[in-house]
Amino acid sequence: MSIAFFMLAAVAVLGGVLAITLRNVIHAVFSVLLFFSAIAGLFLLLIAEFIAAVQILVYIGSVGILMLFAIMLTTKVMGDPTRTVRSRGWVWGGVAVAALLFGVLIPLITRAGNTAESSLSNFDPSVKELGLALMDPYFASVGVIALLLTAGLVGAVVAASSASETTDS
Amino acid sequence: MNNFIDHKIIELGHWVVGFFDEYPLLKLVVQILLYTLPLMLSFMGAFAFSTWLERKGLARIQNRPGPNRVGIFGLLQPMADGIKMLLKEDIVPEESDKLFHLLAPVMLMVPAMIAIGFLPVGDGLNALPLDSAILFFFAIGSMNTIAVFMAGWSSRNKYSLLGGMRAVAQMISYEIPLVLSAVTVIMIAGSLNGQVIVASQQISGWVGSGDVVKEFFGQILGWHIFKPWGFAGFIFFFVAALAEANRSPFDLPEADSEIIAGHLTEYSGFKYAIFFIAEYISAFAIAGIAVTLFLGGWSGPILSGLPWFVIKLFSLFAVMIWIRGTLPRLRVDQLMGYAWKFLMPLAILNIFVAGFYYFAEQQWGTWVALIGGWIFGFGALQLAAKGLSRLNKSPLLKGKRVYQYAE
After folding, report:
1. Is residue A83 part of a domain?
2. Measured CA angle at A128 (ends A126, A131), to 5 deg
3. Quick one: A131 and A99 in the same domain?
4. B190–chain A Cβ distance below 8 A for any pair
5. Of A26, A61, A77, the CB nearest to B142
6. 3-state secondary structure chain A
7. Backbone angles phi and psi of B153, in degrees to 5
């Protein structure tokens, strides 16, 4: 179990590092996809198969394709190496972001550790339970998210249609 | 004895595993091999047979003999083709992205091989009996798109890139009606598990009642295709599945009259063969999911579960060959319009029809729901289809058609 975890974690870290260091945009997108699939594998290890499926469906199947689409619409389709500006500032930015992330995450993880062990006995990872939970206690948040996504979609359609009208006239 | 063969196969598996009881690690390896190898080998065999079937079928439609030199009826033709492909030179373009050019066929093969594991091929015969198997199947299927784009992009050839872009646009669009039409079955069965969905297509009071007639019909009449939403859903699913599997008339990514062979242009030798194997196996996988969702899966009278599944799978594949021999290829704008403006609204309406059917069945019983569903539900779908096709009609086609040269 822990061997599989370390292998997947290594692949995830490798994918993440490659994504920010590779010069070729398309290669970077594919390394992000590698990272996503390693994360899906980690979810599978946690017996969260539904989350793993959603991870593959949404992140690899849709977000990855979306990124490829966006690149295909630019002139960098063949992925010729991009020119980048090097500066020392990114170190401080990285340190600040990492401090913020772990400052929030580590206290939360230590607090969540105790509750997870106690509820392991009546652990039921079925899709049915997940569906019932989404429909009953978390219905309000699901509704709000759905409304937000619909608003975003309508906004995208409006933005796209008005742009084409101005180019026509 | 129903499902005799399926139970015997499971017993055989337990018997083989029983030999390794004292060596837990070896037992695990043997178990993994027993779950995967027969499935992979039988689908490879099915692939070889289906290439022969396809060539023979197309030849029959086009009034020519087809392969008839190697073996009886040309049955060994796939072997000859395979040896030829293995011995061919593997040409990699100078300017191509070498790593991705090599990885693309593998990336297409892996999801195809995982996807067949989710199919319930018989009573209790299921390599990956996950609780969310159907969702996982669609998730794995969406990885095909990435592989096809990888192949098109890494070849550094404009036709390959065009083919890859077409493939991405097509697969993304048709995934939506595909999943939406499968949602109806998941709603009614109340599960994402393949075995539960198959069980929901056997009429519960009739199967196992002992009465011969009820036993016979209980395993047929419960199939979701005999319900109004199931019939419509099966048609939507099958059309979208043809597009997902890059089968004709939706084989635009490899339209040879327009863009040579699309993403396959720069591939030769065994890499090309791997592309073909992967494409056929994913076509089989998606046909298998169609069988599981709408055609009762492995359930059927008299014969065992496994033979029934194989019969249904090959019948569906034969329909695919028939369509390939009959219909011309679509244009790109027709293809996209068909997915977004026609199939998707109808698939969403079909979800409502299925919802009404579900509550009508609970309120007034199966017969009322069936009759009302066929009259009102199917009628609504029919009306919507008529209205949509009128709305989508190109302004150029309105008015009377004038023929310049023909009377």
Report:
1. no
2. 120
3. no
4. yes
5. A61
6. CHHHHHHHHHHHHHHHHHHHHCCCHHHHHHHHHHHHHHHHHHHHHCCCHHHHHHHHHHHHHHHHHHHHHHHHCCCCCCCCCCCCCCCCHHHHHHHHHHHHHHHHHHHHHHHHHHHHHHCCCCCCCCHHHHHHHHHCCCHHHHHHHHHHHHHHHHHHHHHHHHHHHHHHC
7. -75, -40
CB pairs under 8 A between A and B: 65
Whole-number Å distance between alpha carbons of B359 and B353: 10
- Please determine, for the modelled complex, whether the ipTM score is greater than 0.90: no
A84 found inside a domain: no
For residues A116 and A158, state if they share a domain. no
- Name the residue ranges covered by the structural domains of chain B: 91-392
Q: Identify whether residues A12 and A49 lie together within a single domain.
A: yes
Rounded to a whole number of angstroms, the distance from the CA of B82 to the nearest CA of chain A is: 31
For residue B146, give the nearest of A64, A69, A125 by CB distance.
Answer: A64
Q: Are B164 and A57 in contact, with CB atoms under 8 Å apart?
A: no
Q: How far apart are the first and last CA of chain A?
A: 63
From CA A41, how far away is CA A35, in angstroms rounded? 10
Asked if residue A54 and residue A118 are part of one domain, the reply reads no
User: Same domain, yes or no, for A110 and A143?
Assistant: no
**Per-residue model confidence as pLDDT tens for chain B (407 residues):** 467 777 788 888 888 888 887 888 888 888 888 888 888 888 888 888 898 989 898 999 988 888 888 878 888 888 888 888 888 888 888 888 888 888 889 888 988 888 888 888 888 788 888 888 888 888 888 888 888 888 888 888 888 888 888 888 888 888 889 989 999 998 888 888 888 888 888 877 777 677 777 777 777 788 888 888 888 899 999 999 998 888 878 888 777 777 888 788 888 888 888 888 888 998 999 999 999 999 888 887 777 778 888 899 999 999 999 998 888 888 888 888 888 888 899 999 999 988 888 888 888 877 887 888 888 888 888 888 888 888 877 777 667 777 777 76
Contacts of A56 in chain B (CB under 8 A): 136, 139-140, 142-143
Residues of A in Cβ contact (< 8 Å) with B139: 53-54, 56-57, 60-61
Residues A36 and A53 in one domain: yes
Contact A125 B191 (CB under 8 A): no
Question: Locate tokens 């999801």: which residue?
Answer: B111
Q: What is the pTM of this model?
A: 0.85
Total structural domains in chain A?
3
Q: Residue A35 maps to which CATH number?
A: 1.20.120.1200
- Kindly determine whether residue A69 and residue B168, on different chains, have CB atoms separated by under 8 Å: yes
**Domain span including residue A95:** 89-122
Q: Which two tokens stand for residue B282?
A: 């994913």
Clarify whether residues A115 and A130 are in a common domain: no
What residues in B contact A48, CB-CB < 8 Å? none
Same domain assignment for residues A32 and A2: yes
